[in-house]
Specification:
This protein is an all-beta fold. The protein has a single domain, classed as Jelly Rolls (Sandwich). It contains no helices and 14 strands. The N and C termini lie close together (about 10 Å).
Length: about 180
């Protein structure tokens, strides 16, 4: 459960203490949509995204499928030019955390927590500048995540630097999945 207000202490350059406060609330530009599962005797089908469900100018150019072991966290990280789309529908259950760290945003300082998996099948978007990460909270099941990005990872032919700031490097960070 996300606490109403989360106070996080960061150590910045020259060890000056900086306190960041995040409060529970929606984040501008984040879209969360229930996925619809169509089942019959052959199996099932889920539309993972539709252009008419996405924010303008956010069409995917690549896709990634990942499995995450139970108890493992991916992220948090943030992109300066890339919008992401995530689809989670099982197997596995996840706690997803999003932080609005965009100073120009109306929802700056908000944090969202979402539970997703077989019982809550969703697609969600992550706009540029929104810090995001997730944890597989299943007891024993690897969790499936399908993600789409509107930028190529490391650019065309992987010749550019990655558009990613990672907060999972072991250094002090205001962004914690388990808080």
């Amino acid at each position: 459960m996300i606490k109403k207000n989360i106070e996080i202490t960061l150590w910045e350059y020259k060890k000056r203490r900086v306190v960041m406060r995040f409060k529970k609330g929606k984040i501008e530009g984040v879209v969360v949509k229930k996925l619809v599962k169509f089942s019959d005797e052959r199996g099932f089908l889920i539309e993972t995204f539709r252009k008419d469900d996405l924010p303008d100018n956010s069409l995917p150019v690549m896709s990634v499928v990942s499995y995450t072991k139970p108890g493992i966290v991916r992220g948090p990280n943030v992109h300066s030019q890339q919008n992401d789309i995530f689809c989670i529908f099982g197997p596995g259950d996840f706690l997803i955390r999003l932080w609005d760290d965009r100073k120009e945003s109306k929802t700056y300082g908000n944090v969202m927590g979402i539970f997703a998996g077989e019982e809550n099948q969703i697609m969600f978007t992550v706009p540029v500048g929104v810090v995001h990460g997730y944890k597989n909270i299943s007891q024993s099941e690897d969790g499936l995540v399908i993600s789409y990005a509107d930028q190529l990872y490391k650019g065309w032919d992987k010749k550019e630097p990655a558009d990613k700031i990672r907060y999972d490097t072991g250094k002090p960070s205001p962004f914690k999945i388990d808080d």
